[in-house]
Amino acid sequence: MDASEFRKRGKEMVDYVADYLEGIEDRQVYPDVEPGYLRPLIPTTAPQEPEAFEDIIKDIDKIIMPGVTHWHSPYFFAYFPTASSYPAMLADMLCGAIGCIGFSWAASPACTELETVMMDWLGKMLELPESFLARNAGEGGGVIQGSASEATLVALLAARTKVTHRLQAAFPELTRATIMGKLVAYSSDQAHSSVERAGLIGGVTLRAIPSDGNFSMRASALQEAVDQDKAAGLIPFFVVVTLGTTSCCSFDNLLELGPICNREDMWLHIDAAYAGSAFICPEFRHLLNGVEFADSFNFNPHKWLLVNFDCSAMWVKNRTDLTGAFKLDPLYLQHNHQDSGLITDYRHWQIPLGRRFRSLKMWFVFRMYGVKGLQAHIRKHVQLAHEFESLLRQDPRFEICAEVILGLVCFRLKGSNHLNEALLQRINSAKKIHLVPCHLRDKLVLRFAICSRKVESSHVRLAWAHIRELAGSVLAAEKA
Amino acid sequence: MDASEFRKRGKEMVDYVADYLEGIEDRQVYPDVEPGYLRPLIPTTAPQEPEAFEDIIKDIDKIIMPGVTHWHSPYFFAYFPTASSYPAMLADMLCGAIGCIGFSWAASPACTELETVMMDWLGKMLELPESFLARNAGEGGGVIQGSASEATLVALLAARTKVTHRLQAAFPELTRATIMGKLVAYSSDQAHSSVERAGLIGGVTLRAIPSDGNFSMRASALQEAVDQDKAAGLIPFFVVVTLGTTSCCSFDNLLELGPICNREDMWLHIDAAYAGSAFICPEFRHLLNGVEFADSFNFNPHKWLLVNFDCSAMWVKNRTDLTGAFKLDPLYLQHNHQDSGLITDYRHWQIPLGRRFRSLKMWFVFRMYGVKGLQAHIRKHVQLAHEFESLLRQDPRFEICAEVILGLVCFRLKGSNHLNEALLQRINSAKKIHLVPCHLRDKLVLRFAICSRKVESSHVRLAWAHIRELAGSVLAAEKA
């Protein structure tokens, strides 16, 4: 395919994309296919000779679309939102064309420098403390990671290196293995599974701290665990505080927990993967109070801030904590400027070496929406969640299972888990809307997350009418 | 921005991309900017109100392009190639529009199933042993990782879990920390820095085995290290064999090393990040002989197989080895089909949770080029490398420092490192071409990698004439 055919096919693809997103409401949100559906539909080997674009695009409709879960349908209420906006898509086209691999400043200076400045822009939108910003010669700064999971892992590894160096400096006879065997990390029992996984990968013990009645980790529970571990000769070194848990969007008590982390010399990482986007609105910023105690902070603009996946924003107060954990410098990656202090080689901030020019997406989205446009997007989602909440409250058969703070409503039919499983089964079999469950303690709960950029009150009301109707038949079947 | 404006702007962007790539030869390959150039050119905060697309696209030319290293210029000979093709860009547009996060089968069945089948297609193109393919109900299979670094890390973590379970089953009194303190991984002293990093992250000792005169890891050196470690009470568990090293594209002796790994019960991971693409050509397939000894194999179609970044292809013989290392199943990620055996939840195969619909790129590229088109791309690059090699051989001032096997030529002026540093400095100051150096033992060497999809014999000859001219002035300055 040469440039002139790309001009033609690219424009057709632009229309295909616009048609898809304009018409997405009319597609069934969850597919009908069964596991293994795709393999029989396509050849068993790649073709030897080139095929025509027309044949491929036909197969998109015939083979791919029937197996797609439509995440951007206004009837998709599952998981959490994932970002989708036209400005981000335009930026991604440009990113693909430039196609640089920005592992070092020299590998493409614009790629590194725009990222640093965009992370400062975003940090200022969140009113992060100055110490997290790169500015001209700050000690902190931001980096785009691929996912919150990677951010948590990177923070844990940096903390592990830091505590190991500190202990080996004080007690040179200690081996790395001895230290690692004693390290303990902490998070709430409501934290995302990626935190547990980071502990596994890092080879350290992760302790799940029992959360309180509001699914929030509190100071007393953390302090008790830390004291016990210290008494047992273990080394507490890392705490993940979750702001906006995946199950029910609860918030750990950062203002209580922060001082403990600082006092006990434990690295404090904040995971606000979903909720973080809301902190650009002044009325939600208080949920981030206490961030000044943290060593690292992360949230996902690719969830709720209209920057398409992947774009996970991570800040640290001391960039040398990250680079100290990862820095390896073979000659083929060195360049003239690297010791100047002014420049950033992001390969030392992350797990992979390669990285795309993802800050273009942030730049396009921030400028084409403006802060006000982004705030309006957040506010609309929160308002729709409260609308769904108020509908629920009018129906005494249902209960709300966690405080509705942002765009997620956790609810269930009063009664057994079995009853709620039956309701969930009916909802996901009908495929008019799509949602997923969670456990809150021993209760099976349904999660209704406001997701699509195009979801409106009418969709929420239709979803509610549908849920009520199915609930009616479940309850009737129960009685029968 | 609504759909109708996206139709307009998207088509303008398609033309912008085509213009950029058509005209890339006329741009200076390496930018003139100094560290910190970008920050003063843009505002210190994001705008409150939306800005117009026209203003943003103007800033691309004014602010971004002057700071871009043009990786797809035919005068770019640095690092290794990174893929750029129009079919991959078209597929990425579609991927952005569908915008699903394919962490589980249910999250978007097409996303998972196309990936599994594309990895089978690609595995067959490479003539991988059947045991690496997923087929209908195989025990192996492939997955798209973000980078070779992640693939190495994932393999090391899977191997670490496997050996830990095995030892704890035999000796229940052994703690995980005790085992980890004794684990030893091995790679060549020519292996990529990401291998050392994987060892650091995984918290295990990594031993660099001295390579032979051809920069190849050999059986005797590995066996010696393994025997010494076993005698010292340590536990050899993991070997990375590199096919096509970053420095000079040398090949470890897989046919010798494979049997040792199998006999000593060490996980064998093959990293063929760059060279792997060449194995689709029958005349280069012999370089992969011995893959049957491996537990995992990885290469990067996003380097040399025209599938834009990111797309790193990894296969394992036993998928349960990977999923065993990572599997954590909170309720909100569970779905009806997950215990059926027929389905794949790729979140258990990788570090992050989220993942894009990257197999679309493979599908578009494989179909629109056909296997023959991809082979022609590889062959052209190898032929151009040999053309550059033969030009070099005609000039007695230069020496070739490693066998030219694929698309990389390592060369230097006969004489001191100082002399070659001066040559490098002149090349990269002139900015007519761009390349990077490496160390081979104590020698500073220049790497000439055939990179661009559009590089032709004429560009290679111009580059050579330019290098000769600069060499002349360096040598003259030396004598003066």
Automatic annotation (TrEMBL), chains A, B:
EC number(s) reported in the record: 4.1.1.28
MF term (GO), any: 5-hydroxy-L-tryptophan decarboxylase activity
Pathway stated in the Swiss-Prot or TrEMBL entry: Catecholamine biosynthesis; dopamine biosynthesis; dopamine from L-tyrosine: step 2/2
Signal peptide stretch: none
Origin: domain of life: Eukaryota
Annotated transmembrane regions: none
UniProt enzyme class: lyase
GO cellular component, one term: cytoplasm
Record-linked SUPFAM superfamilies: PLP-dependent transferases
Keywords, ordered alphabetically: Catecholamine biosynthesis, Decarboxylase, Lyase, Pyridoxal phosphate
Cofactor: pyridoxal 5'-phosphate
Annotated InterPro entries: Aromatic_deC (IPR010977), PyrdxlP-dep_de-COase (IPR002129), PyrdxlP-dep_Trfase (IPR015424), PyrdxlP-dep_Trfase_major (IPR015421), PyrdxlP-dep_Trfase_small (IPR015422), Pyridoxal-P_BS (IPR021115)
CDD domains from the UniProt entry: DOPA_deC_like (cd06450)
One GO term of the biological process aspect: dopamine biosynthetic process
Gene3D superfamilies linked to this entry: Aspartate Aminotransferase, domain 1, dopa decarboxylase, N-terminal domain, Type I PLP-dependent aspartate aminotransferase-like (Major domain)
PTM-bearing positions, type N6-(pyridoxal phosphate)lysine: 303
Family in the record: Belongs to the group II decarboxylase family.
Subunit structure: Homodimer.
Protein name in the entry: Aromatic-L-amino-acid decarboxylase
